[in-house]
Amino acid sequence: MNSETMDRIDAILHQAPVVPVLAVADADDAIPLAETLVAAGLPVLEITLRTPAALEVIRRMRTVPGAIVGAGTVLTPADLAAVQDAGAAFAISPGGSDALYAAAKTAAIPLLPGIATASELMRGLEHGWTRFKFFPAEASGGVAALKAFAGPFAQVKFCPTGGIDAAKAPGYLALPNVITVGGSWMAPGEALKARDWAAIGALAEAAARR
Fold first, then answer.
1. CATH number of the domain where residue 163 is located
2. Which of 47, 53, 79, 162 has the largest count of CB atoms under 10 Å?
């Protein structure tokens, strides 16, 4: 990761305290969902590659003014190329392989790789990265683990994701090595299925105030 790439990731992650992590099954929900979240103050959106509609969702969401749309669950160089072609502004992976790191070095969009352990973090540092997704955050030690990482890895900053809800988010955001947190609590599955944009908007507004 060169300094320009790190600056690009920082600029994206600093836009809001929470990044909604979204698995959207119906591409027709893309625009109203993005409009709802952006209006609530959460412009950075992670669309996970967990549904067949994901790439089309990215294509549609990126047309919404103010939306900064990225892709999550990027596992391979082919995934990275696909989300880049779909117009994603960034990519997030739950882990980091040598092949994915290599592909990311020449990609047009920045990658935020995932780590859960000190060894994985050191591997990422060897590849030149200093910004990581901490995943799965709660299962991997949560706030206590990130506090421990701060000593030997003072140059590293994180976006923790996984098991974080509205009650737990403030504890993470209070840490100096956390830029933002990822979570899905502001777009619960039932509300998304019902297209209850008002409920999602209210939850997102509360998240944006953290």
1. 3.20.20.70
2. 47
Of 4, 56, 133, 193, which is the active-site residue? Answer: 133
Residue 46 appears among annotated catalytic residues: yes
Tally of domains within the chain: 1
Is 210 within a domain? no
Write the pLDDT tens digit of every residue in 134-185.
999 999 999 999 999 999 999 999 999 999 999 999 999 999 999 999 999 9
**Mean pLDDT rounded to a whole number for the chain:** 97
Q: 198: which residues sit within 8 A by CB, 6+ positions away? A: none
- What is the span of the domain harbouring residue 68? 3-205
Please report whether residue 25 resides in a domain.
Answer: yes
Beta bridge partners of 115: 134
Told to judge if 133 belongs to the known catalytic residues of this protein, a careful annotator would answer yes
d(CA 53, CA 22): 12
